[in-house]
């Protein structure tokens, strides 16, 4: 376990800090949890080799859309692995601080990505570590993007967060007759099916990766927090047309599982004792 003093964290029994609003604090208290401190994990990643050489969009399947990436396959696999690894390492470091504070989990996790002044990208995971009023401790601190109020609603409904889940995919296609560059001058308003196919494929793959990641956390389902889609263009001189189009989709959510199967009366009454481990 990380030493509090070595990690620069407050000593046990000292005043705690948090990212919670007063409403979030009250909601968390109402379901039998106490904040124990603010936690932060950070990683600076240099984006170098991505695994994609030449015109990756030209090496495509039927209809011109390249098979979307996964963490283990496709020409983008190295880039996708790095994107997963940076987010997970930042989260792991926040969890280590949570453990050092004696916390059972982290609520309100905010994942941020920004350019680092010296180059590369900085990934940060910021949230509030909480501890349950219970003698039953989870084996692994949970992580969740849910606000204090949403976390309380989840607990009242008989569910518990098991971990932050990610779904990341990158796909590309070569510029051809099915993209707007080649058809807008001959046709009026119509669907550009080449672009539609590209973003549909990358979103679907990211959703599949999210579901797989949620299952690894032992979740019965996932509550989605954020969905990002970015599209960029790059020159391609190796084939007949001059451009590739690249789409990147990122899904972030909280994996959740039932912790009690029996029915409970409705209402916001406090839970001073609760089971954090999933029922077997």
Question: Can you give the mean pLDDT?
Answer: 77
Determine the structural class based on helices, strands and strand pairing.
Answer: alpha+beta
CATH fold node name? Translation Initiation Factor IF3
Helical content, roughly?
A: 25-40%
Q: Any idea what the radius of gyration is?
A: 22 Å
CATH class: Alpha Beta
Summarize the biggest pleated sheet. Answer: 4 strands, mixed
Q: Span between N and C termini? A: 28 Å
- The shape, in one word, is elongated
Number of strands: 7
Number of domains: 1
Beta-strand content estimate: 25-35%
Task: Report what the structure shows.
The chain is α+β, with helices and mostly antiparallel strands and 280 residues long. It has one domain (17-258): Hypothetical protein apc22750. Chain B (Translation Initiation Factor IF3, 2-Layer Sandwich). The chain is built from six helices and seven strands, in the order H-H-E-H-E-E-E-H-E-H-H-E-E. It has helices at 4-7, 22-30, 77-100, 148-156, 180-183, 193-216, and strands at residues 33-45, 105-115, 121-132, 142-143, 159-174, 221-235, 243-258. The strands form two sheets. The protein has a four-stranded mixed sheet. A three-stranded antiparallel sheet has the order 5-7-6. The longest helix is centred in the N-terminal third of the chain and has 24 residues, at 77-100. The two termini are 28 Å apart. Residues 57-67 and 261-280 have low confidence and may be disordered.
Structural features:
280 residues, alpha+beta, Translation Initiation Factor IF3, 3-stranded antiparallel beta sheet, 7 strands, elongated, disordered C terminus
